[in-house]
Amino acid sequence: MNWQSISPILRIGLLLGAVCYLALILWLLKKKKLTVRYSIIWLLSAGVLLVFAVFPYVVLVLTDLLGMAVPVNVVFLLVIAFILLLLLSLSSIVSGFAEKIKRLAQENALLEERVRRLEAQLAAQDKQTENEKTS
After folding, report:
1. What is the pLDDT of residues 25-58, one digit of tens each?
2. Mean per-residue pLDDT for 7-30?
């Protein structure tokens, strides 16, 4: 199979799909629905899709380099690798948030205890002032 055997309609469809995907990522960044920090992996995937759409020969070269029989296997391999990378990235983010939540809960508990003590001291002072006034 050579890259010229890919129909022009399929190539145009792949190119439009990759451009729409990239536009969606950029739109989400603009609307602040996605932060730059977490969008890097999405931008990389859009770039790879764009390269594959513009230069389908790259998939064929990768097929030969990896010794695979069919180019679609390379695409599946890359998709699975992307999903694993995405899962690892999201797990790292969730772990960081879990630590922050734990620390914030501990700080909140300490502040609540401090407020209770201060309220108790204030109540004791108010009682003492009332007793002094009545005496």
Report:
1. 999 999 999 888 878 888 999 999 999 888 888 9
2. 92
Instruction: Using CA atoms of 81, 83, 84, 86 in order, give the dihedral in degrees to the nearest 10.
Output: 120
Give the SS3 label for residue 19: helix
Token representation of residue 75: 């695409």
Residue reference for tokens 């739109």: 27
Buried b (16+ CB within 10 A) or exposed e, 75-102: eeebeeebeeeeeeeeeeeeeeeeeeee
Which amino acid, residue 47?
A: G
How far apart are the C-alpha atoms of 67 and 126, rounded to whole Å? Answer: 84
The pTM score is 0.69
